[in-house]
Amino acid sequence: MEYDLIIIGAGPAGYVAAIRAGQLGMKTALVEKKEVGGMCLNWGCIPTKALIESAKFYNRIKSAENLGIDGIDQSKVTFNWGQAKRRSGKIVTKLTGGVNFLLKKNGVEVIKGEAKIISSTSVSVENRLLEAKNIFIATGSYPAPLNIELPEGKLIQVEKLLDIEALPHRIVLVGHGPVTLELAQFFQLIDKDITVISPVENVLPGVDDYLRQYIMKKTKSQGIRIMENSRITSATEELLIVNGIDVPYDVVINCSWRNGIAPPSEIGFNRDDHGFIPVNEFLETSVAGVYAIGDVNGLSYLAHAASAQGIFAVNHIQGVLGSMDMKQCPINIYTHPEVAQIGLTEREIREKGIEYRIGEFPMSANGKALAEDSAEGMIRILSGKKLGEVLGVQIIAANATDLIAEAAAFMSVEATVYDVARTMHAHPTVSEVFLEAGMDAAYKPIHK
Q: Fewest 10 Å CB contacts: which of 36, 81, 137, 351?
């Protein structure tokens, strides 16, 4: 069977690329050995964020009296893990059903099975030969294995989290990165005893130092133990030995930094030590006509980056010129409060020798945030001192992961802090913090 494009992997990179290709009239085959939606929709981004929202709501009930609500017997309020999972599952079913509908609507042929790349123009799936002008590898990534021996039943892969019938009390998370801290806070919010064991010193690589220090301080203040630069050396049924220290536990969840997953192949495209496939500026591998999009190329672990890469690569093979700046990709961390950033970090600005200023505004001075009882955090806008161009934005707020989209819009059109400062914002809204931070950098804020 001949196609214009074969895509291997139906996660946020693969299925988005397939829909885009279908919209452009390309005959497209999308090969997936598990479930359409990949890690993000089925056991990663979406279900875990649904669980986190359940945990936040549970935690919020504890302060209901502050909002003028009486009559709640706190001794009877418990977190229902089974119901939270069912809610999460319903959301996943709705979204994956929508993706399947869109694939069908745009004429994409979804083929179930494991793909093997035979040549730069052919793929085999369950002994069926497919041929195409271009091949996209969108097979994603997976947490690296833990090189430790644990008693049977004590190790849980993060993919299997939703399979747990009942959550134990003492949970150890091994790994680093946003997912590790997000899950740590989730379990803490539902009253579990949490320890994070990070093999590296910087638990949040790529995150601005200011944000990282804030998150770490906040997380530790919530009673979460974080052991940085640490490794498990041995284990019994009830104790882990970490750097010579006894750590009581019930289960260990593997949240390790991920390695790239490439399909079996008879062609020799390059891969690095962590399994990622290097690509050029057009996301093409060392083999002409074969592209790697999403997690598998190691450029970003973020689902929205994967989707953007999918669209970019399809446009490229169709002759649409363009470029991708990964610094324009928002980084969202779904902690409590949420954290988000886009653009250059303060350290990167200093390393480039750019003179800069910081415009800041606290959420505690924002009327809507106060009304919502979610006034923790702030916004920081980093801008060039000479021209005022927005170099980076960092937000700590209850809804930072939504607010960062405004920063992305400003930066995509190369806005200055003067543009930000004169953009009218509705009142009362949390987004007014952009206006105030812009004025702080350009002139002086009104409410600070």
A: 351
Which of these, 270, 272, 261, lies nearest to 301 by C-alpha position? Answer: 261
Supply 160's token pair. 């299997």
The DSSP-derived string for 230-258 is --EEEE-SSEEEETTEEEE-SEEEEEPPE
Residue 94, token pair as written in the block: 């709705």
Q: What is the pTM of this model?
A: 0.91
Q: Please, what are the domains in the chain?
A: 2-143+259-326 (3.50.50.60), 155-256 (3.50.50.60), 337-442 (3.30.390.30)
427 is an active site residue: yes
Residue 133: other Cβ atoms inside 10 A: 15
Tell me which H or E stretch contains 272: none
Q: Of these residues, 169, 274, 304, 427, which one is catalytic?
A: 427
